[in-house]
Amino acid sequence: MELDLVKYKYTQSWFINSEIRFNLLKFISLDKQHNILEIGCFEGLSSSCFSDNLLNHSKSTMDCVDPFIFSGTNEQITTLNVTSNTENTFRYNIKKSKSFNKITFHKLKSDDFFLNNTKKFNLIYIDGCHEPENIIRDMNSSFNFLEVNGIMWMDDYLGGNNRSCLKAMNIFLNNNIGKYQIIHKNYQLAIKKLYD
User: Fold this and answer.
1) What global pTM score does this model have?
2) Could you tell me the domains of the chain?
3) Residues 11-28 pLDDT 10s
4) Residue 152 bridge partners (DSSP)
5) For residues 153 and 158, what is the distance between their CA atoms, to the nearest angstrom?
């Protein structure tokens, strides 16, 4: 997927070489209606890339969920590299993106978002809290709101301390055998939902 790096601000370049950016279009069409959910947006490079490439259909939408918790807050779990300016960078970037008017931003923890969500999505990108219990909850909740044949793509499958992300994601995979097909498995993990 194309990403105009001159147009956007960023302090970290993780998404620039991410596997989803170079492999997603093997599995989805650019012109189809997409209802995208992104959990964990950081500076919005991924959000902007999805906006620039995947929201071409008039009815396409994207929901971005991130509480932007940083070390200056009183929250127990903070996000590495998130600062008091990260949210401003995210908002700047998505406003520069092609289909910014199709994006809804939810400044919430993912658990709180799912409590009131009623939408179904055909693409969910999970790059939120990397605590194992949060990973499992994000995957379970996301899978419940994923359409049949929809794609759920997880960052950092091989990341975390002592491969803690891999262990947590494998718990989800083992608990849902037969309900999904693995379509990508490397540093990132992606599955296609086979049935509810």
Assistant:
1) 0.95
2) 33-193 (3.40.50.150)
3) 999 999 999 999 999 999
4) 124, 191
5) 13
